[in-house]
Amino acid sequence: MSIVNELDYRVEGALFTSTCLKRDVILDFYLPTGVEDLSELSLLLINDGQDLQAMDFKTILSDRYSGGAIGPVLCAGITAGADRKREYGVAATTDYLGRGDRAGSYTTFIINELLPFIAEKYNVKTFRDKAFAGFSLGGLSALDIVWNHPEVFSKAAVFSGSLWWRSIDQDDPAYDDDKDRIMQQQIRNGAYAPGLKFFLQCGLLDEAQDRNNNGIIDAVDDTRDTVAELMKKGYQPEDLFYLELDEGKHDVATWGKAMPVFLEWSWPGGNQK
């Protein structure tokens, strides 16, 4: 790979008509400049791509890329559709309110439509590696897709993820964290896949709920428990990055603070040891 001295990012918009989703999907591509051989690029897909402009994602990328903190990675922001709560979720099952019923179609869109479209658009037969990130419910979706497709993706990033996603209402007397949280159960009952890495972020101000009255908000409990399930499955400390922000909220500003940590952990550049 040959890189010229001027390192920056440019943004390219695209509109993709998805057969799986039966709608148009708005995409924003963040392309690093100065890369001659695009097959040396990594690829990062991001759910809720509509939040990236407010985050000033281009500046986050450009500053770290030009400064050598990260290597070149092509990023694709996927704008959520009107059926976000149906398309995002866990493909294998809906939650207790029936949400996520189109998550299977969304997964098919990602694997069978979006990835081939990106490969054709940028004339890249294969990327160095592929990762998927998302915020809130989009983070749950990204984790679900990576977990179930380790042959495609090598990293998942979950920012304030909806890891409370559950099969029955928490107010039901029969509700049990260990049995009824869908993603944690999927990890527990799934198979270890060598090579996968996971970045999980939450904030102490993500919410106020504390369903088990242990003095720790649910968002933190749910994220910590997901990390614990991954470790029980066999993933090592070097495979996991857990970021807990004391002042972190459930908002774009917080995710913008966490994003550089994820990028530098995932694709360290020349000034990283």
TrEMBL record:
InterPro entries: AB_hydrolase_fold (IPR029058), Esterase-like (IPR000801), Mycobacterial_A85_antigen (IPR050583)
Highest taxon in the source lineage: Bacteria
Any single Pfam family the record assigns to this protein: Esterase
Record protein name field: Esterase
